[in-house]
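User: For documentation purposes, I need each entry recorded in a consistent format: the amino acid sequence on its own, followed directly by the corresponding structure tokens. There are two entries in this batch. Please keep commentary to a minimum and don't merge the entries.

Assistant: Recorded as requested. Entry 1:
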Amino acid sequence: MIVFDTHIWIWWIHKAKELTKRQVYTIMQNEERTIGISAISCWEIAKLVAGQRLHLPFPLPEWFAVALRYPGIRLLPLNPPSFLENFIKTRLTKSSWPPPEFTSVL
């Protein structure tokens, strides 16, 4: 299994030129296996669209319906304890914790 980062998933769905030939080949080889999409990628895309930093060719619910039906795509559940532990260690500083999106969860 390979797991797409959010931007790779967007680029793959939109056949963006940012993907290298090697990346396209690797993805195509895994379509018959599994291409993992983290549930957090759905949240990231929704935030980008809401903030007008990403413009999709059709409404978000339709985009997700199409994007999640691509060959090999499997939505991976978010494991909150593991996710939060890794997120804290690798991406956040003390001054940015908790982000507003997590305050209702904590």
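Entry 2:
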Amino acid sequence: MKFVTGRPFADPEVAARKIVELANAFEPLQDGRIYIEKINGPFLFEVKGTPAEYKAGLDRAIANGWLWLHESGTFVKFTETVFRRGVSAMIGVGVPSPEFNEIKGLKGSRRRR
């Protein structure tokens, strides 16, 4: 008899995809920076992930080459791989629409200023 249900983010790959999805929800500031509190707050309090699941997911997203974490730990940036392929393609949500680059302000692999 099982009294506890499985955790949705127990798999680091699933947690990494959710973290990238949450990071994509915010408009990057100052040279593509996404402040870490814009990701960890929603992950911990809205989708009810645990700190261990968050850390495992963040580490997996960095290892997969989706995010780059600054040495201070205060912000992340999307990598060039994500800019080239699109966030939706990276996290397996589907193929990004042609409007994706226009919406995100991207042209090719470089961001417009």
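Summary note for entry 2:
The beta strands are 34-35, 67-69, 75-78, 106-107, 110-111.
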